[in-house]
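During the reporting period the student researcher (J.K.) took over the structure-prediction task from the postdoctoral fellow and processed the backlog of single-chain submissions. One of the processed entries is reproduced below for the supervisory committee.
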Amino acid sequence: MNPIEELIVEGRLKEALKELALKAPANLKSDVLNLQSRLSRLEQNEMLGLLRHDDAGIERRNIVDATLKLNGMANAEAQPGAGTTSPVGPPTPVPHAPTKTKILFLAANPDNETRLQTDREYRLLRAQLERGSQRDAFDFLPPQFAVTITELVRAMNDKPNIVHFSGHGETNGILIATEDNKSQPIPLPALQRLFRPLKGVTQIVVLNACYSAEQAQEISKLGFYVVGNNNPITDPAALDLSEGLYNGFGEGKSFEDAFNDAMIVVLTRSTDQAPIIEVWKDGVKLDL
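J.K. obtained the following structure tokens:
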């Protein structure tokens, strides 16, 4: 058993790939780099809770298999006379490009409601994420700033992993926009149907709106982490929450650790608003 195989047996896959990158011939280095990217993305998605345990195990085994195959090819090329004969067996498959975590930002600012800083919130959270060391693990889907119900349904077809809504909310639902930019509540049964097809795909939902805790509780029954507010929340506090949360995501933190960062910001700048913010999962309010 060679050193790279020993590292894999010991469960030290990242170190095995580093060793392989050092010894691989030039024609195999890009394949090794792709495997390193896949492993990094896998670990990132595991931290964020974006992969089921079984799916994560399958991807890790695929990376191990590809690593062993590349190691064998590298060893063969290092032997005397390597390259003088054609390789035996099928070609090594090109590793898949790593999958990024997709973020969908939704907002509504109806003309008949108080103006909110939804544009600023989007710029702020995106800037925080892009400053992080793990920014390349994320991809922003086209944002919707005056989202109507048909645009909302269409946007969900992109299968986002994180859904962030910024806007108004009432006791009977969060408010989106009509075609003439007037307020339109989404009733809870419609919201449940909207998210039901995303079970197992979407992992985090942020309802950064007033009176959104009831909606958060219901959506969370699909297995999502859902942030909601049990009372009206001020615009500055909503911005603080987003700033802290996406700062954490940008550094590759899990949802719970990123939410902790967000609450540090809220407790410092908008102390009285902290008790309003809740997190739900599987229909249960979490003590985070």
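The committee noted the following: Residues 82-89 have pLDDT under 50 and may be disordered.
J.K. will present the remaining backlog at the next meeting.
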